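User: quick one, fold this
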Amino acid sequence: MDNNKPDKDKMLYPRSSYRGEFSPENLMFNANLQEFAQKVSYICNLETNGKLSANQAYEQIRVLWKELKTSIKNLNLEQ
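Assistant:
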């Protein structure tokens, strides 16, 4: 069993505390936004290191952006 798993998870998937106006919807969107930012960071690093082409990185980020926009709609946070 890997006793370092919690430490690895904290390093690989950092989460910041939510400090905005509390509502379940805002909290959920914040979690979605943090996940979006983390995934975009990974994609950028893969592209920078030549593991993804610029077009592949763009397409993956575009899909993530659409998912984030959908979460805004689903959480009724559109203004």
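User: anything notable?
Assistant: The chain has a mean pLDDT of 90.
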